[in-house]
């Protein structure tokens, strides 16, 4: 009989989104005409930039003729896209990254999940809390998280609390860890780290032989000067960090699927004997074995986001969501709520009124205001007592929701 990977059955069912759906459905049943506004979504609502759609049509058309048809492409991504990434996301920001340090993929969820393949099961992993659930669950699947406890936390993970008391700046781990997941600008809190605060992490990683797994999926939403767009803006980061990027939130590619991972050639891991091994080589090996590349058509769409028109169109998308976030911040503040984030990210993290938990606050907003949010507790124990408002909705709904809250 084939025995399963029992780590999978240790993982509690992710009831967050099904529980939200259940409560919304019940509210609808009791109030069939309730004008519900959904601010819980982590998906974009605006369509793709025209430049990307045009590029896909052209690329699709090329597939009709033998001269321009493309079969298997390079596993690491086509040179045209890796080149555009290097120039626009790194060289233009004064960061020295080479094309063979870029690995194009079908998105940052796959990459942040798959990166664990190149690390031993006995590494100690630290995760900021609350966090994007992929980091926790993929480590659990690999057997790196230990056992789940009654509170939903895992025995072998180190949780770095982020809350209003520390202004969402995680403290350095007090015990020995090997890998640390950082996501800035952050999902779900919408907060971020300044250059100085991120420098503390890079220096810590260097001094303690730690690898940082830096998820920069929301980089395009940064509006403030002193917030790094890439961890490689910090001196020495190429020795300690892997960075994940995505076209999903930046350019509306949530359904189109494209992202990339940066693994610097100088970044090393250790064997059990203490020999140093290039992580770039290991990741390349992993990708070439398990991945056959992102579709040519999609890579052309991603390339087009870096064209002059593409850049303008992407900026318009980001500006639209950023304005929504501003409206949410202003509305919640006027309504007397304590809020965080939303300046460099499309999420606003709101503190529940005193004495209310995440789900109570969620129910209050649903039943009294017909607004759907995401309970913070769904992202980890430190998310208890908060809800997440998303800025990815329409302008009309965003304004209407804030009007309801002000009343
Ligand atoms: C949305 C998101 C991603 C991007 O995932 P894709 O697979 O590229 O769509 C990555 N990390 C975080 C934290 C996210 O919220």
Descriptive account of the structure:
By secondary structure, this protein is α/β, with parallel strands linked by helices. It contains 13 helices and 15 strands. The strands form four sheets. Strands 2-8-7-6-5-3-4 form a seven-stranded mixed β-sheet, sandwiched between helices. The termini are far apart. 46% of the residues are buried. Residues 42, 107-109, 132, 183, 187, 215, 217, 246, 248-249, 254, 259 line the site of pyridoxal-5'-phosphate.
Any descriptors?
single chain; 407 residues; alpha/beta; Aspartate Aminotransferase, domain 1; Aspartate Aminotransferase, domain 2; 2 domains; seven-stranded mixed β-sheet; 13 helices; binds pyridoxal-5'-phosphate
- Number of individual domains: 2
Into which percent range does the helicity of residues fall? 25-40%
- Report how far apart the termini are: 62 Å
Biggest sheet statistics: 7 strands, mixed
The run of helices and strands is HHEHHEHEHEEHEEHEEEHHHEEHEEEH
CATH homology-level superfamily of the largest domain: Type I PLP-dependent aspartate aminotransferase-like (Major domain)
Poorly predicted runs:
none
Gross morphology: globular
CATH fold-level assignment of the largest domain:
Aspartate Aminotransferase, domain 2
Q: What integer is the average pLDDT?
A: 97
Strand order of the largest sheet: 2-8-7-6-5-3-4
> Which CATH class of the largest domain?
Alpha Beta
Radius of gyration: 22 Å
Percent range for β-strand residues = 5-15%
Structural class: alpha/beta
At CATH level 2, the architecture of the largest domain is 3-Layer(aba) Sandwich
Count of distinct strands: 15
Provide a count of the helices.
13
Bound molecules: pyridoxal-5'-phosphate
Pathway: Amino-acid biosynthesis; L-lysine biosynthesis via DAP pathway; LL-2,6-diaminopimelate from (S)-tetrahydrodipicolinate (aminotransferase route): step 1/1
GO molecular function: L,L-diaminopimelate aminotransferase activity; pyridoxal phosphate binding
Binding site for substrate: 15, 42, 109, 132, 187, 292, 388
Subunit structure: Homodimer.
């Amino acid at each position: 009989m084939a025995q399963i990977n029992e780590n999978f059955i240790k993982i509690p069912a992710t009831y967050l989104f099904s529980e939200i759906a259940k409560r919304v459905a019940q509210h609808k049943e009791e109030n069939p005409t309730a004008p519900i506004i959904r601010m819980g979504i982590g998906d974009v609502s605006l369509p793709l930039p025209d430049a990307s759609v045009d590029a896909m049509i052209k690329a699709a058309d090329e597939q009709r003729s033998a001269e321009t048809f493309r079969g298997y492409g390079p596993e690491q991504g086509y040179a045209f896209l890796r080149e555009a990434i290097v120039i626009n996301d790194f060289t233009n920001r004064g960061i020295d990254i080479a094309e063979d340090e870029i690995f194009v993929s079908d998105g940052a969820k796959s990459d942040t999940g798959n990166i664990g393949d190149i690390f031993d099961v006995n590494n100690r992993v630290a995760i900021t809390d609350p966090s994007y659930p992929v980091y926790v669950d993929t480590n659990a699947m690999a057997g790196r998280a230990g056992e789940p406890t009654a509170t939903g936390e895992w025995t072998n993970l180190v949780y770095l609390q982020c809350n209003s008391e520390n202004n969402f700046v995680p403290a350095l781990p007090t015990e020995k860890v090997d890998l640390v997941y950082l996501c800035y600008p952050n999902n779900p809190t919408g907060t971020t780290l300044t250059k100085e605060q991120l420098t503390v992490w890079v220096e810590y990683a260097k001094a303690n032989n730690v690898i940082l797994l830096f998820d920069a999926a929301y980089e395009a939403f940064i509006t403030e000067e002193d917030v790094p767009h890439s961890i490689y803006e910090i001196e020495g980061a190429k020795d300690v960090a892997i960075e994940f990027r995505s076209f999903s939130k930046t350019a509306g590619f949530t359904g189109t699927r494209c992202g990339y991972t940066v693994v610097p050639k100088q970044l090393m891991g250790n064997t059990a004997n203490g020999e140093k091994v290039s992580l770039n080589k290991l990741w390349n090996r992993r990708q070439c074995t398990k991945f056959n590349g992102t579709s040519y058509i999609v890579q052309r769409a991603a390339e087009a986001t870096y064209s002059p028109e593409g850049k303008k169109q992407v900026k318009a998308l980001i500006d639209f969501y950023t304005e929504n976030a501003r409206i949410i911040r202003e509305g919640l503040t006027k309504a007397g709520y304590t809020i965080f984030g939303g300046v460099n990210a499309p999420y606003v993290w709101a503190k529940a009124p005193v004495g209310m938990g995440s789900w109570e606050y969620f129910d209050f907003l649903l039943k009294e205001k017909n607004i759907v949010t995401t309970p913070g507790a769904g992202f980890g124990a430190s998310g208890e007592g908060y809800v997440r408002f998303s800025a990815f909705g329409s302008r009309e709904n965003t304004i209407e929701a804030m009007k309801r809250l002000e009343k």
